[in-house]
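Appendix B. Chain record.
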Amino acid sequence: MIFDISPNSRALGSEEARKLDDDFFLSNPLAQFSSRIAMLLEAHGSETVPTPENEKEFFSTLGLTSGENALKFNKRDRQTQVAIDSLALRHQVAEALARIIHATSVAEPRDGDSRCVWLQLADGPLKTSDVVGQNAKYLNAKTDRLLQLLFPVGTNLTKQHFEAAESARSWINHSVHLLTNDELSANAANNKMKHGLAVSARDDIRIELFNEKPADIQRIPVSAFGKGKTIPLFDQPMLSYLNRPSVKPKMGWEVASLRVDLPVALAEAWMMANIHAAIFHVAALRHFEGKLPDGVGPYPSLVIGSSPEKIIGNKPIGYRSTITLPPDGTTPPRPPGLLFHSVFIPMSFTPDSGTEGTIVAG
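Structure tokens predicted for this chain:
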């Protein structure tokens, strides 16, 4: 849309604010997020490689002939890429959820501006930690504030509404965990992906714990693996990154590896996107004074009883270890170990003292 707005003041006027939010609330974030989830799921199962014959405009724009193909990768490359993109999408949705809460309920217009959700969203705190901190203070001050965010004015609240609100609260808390937790810092992983792709993405590493030591550790039969025999720790693509945790006293550099379970990461993203859509729709109702124009996304069906714990389960999220000591020379480094959804278990791998072996048929 081309906006017929001319600047005539250093502050945003009420008419300009109305025009901006008229357009902003005609977007459909849930449809956009759902489309990306569908695209990633489809790509994960596809072996199709674009060619100059079926993607003519792309290749002709590059100036490549029909015999050349600059896009070369295999199915494993694609599946690893899709897994990593699922983390980026999950993080984007988590931050979108935190910031729509802030923009629609916490933020106040500044410098004489008229209230405008789009501007408050664009001009929110730079630090995500400030956003979630202010959100927590606002939501915890009164028990009904989450209900006001999620449900239109005049809703006849039933038991199902309260159950949906509790489910939403758990996913809002999960978004905060993704954005601020420093045990592995998914936020740091996302930043390392955005800024220069300073990550290592691998799908050829598998770590399992044996319940009992195999009789021949150098030649391990395939039958020695499986339910009741081994405990898989890392059996999905892994994203590794270097990070200095935001804790005090200051720590040294650590290397962290996230286990990327594609269906789980996308399910997390969709659950948070669903809560975002409800808050977005209620804010649109307030802006349009209850008379929604065509084009506003519908109110979503809120899911009841599907908590982060149920979706993520008891599988490990990742592993971390320290590679440099803290800079003060006296503070001990954080212990290496495995992170699950709600608990960190100190654990150390010592490959130098291990034994090389081969997995054989049998």
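Further analysis of this model is presented in Appendix C.
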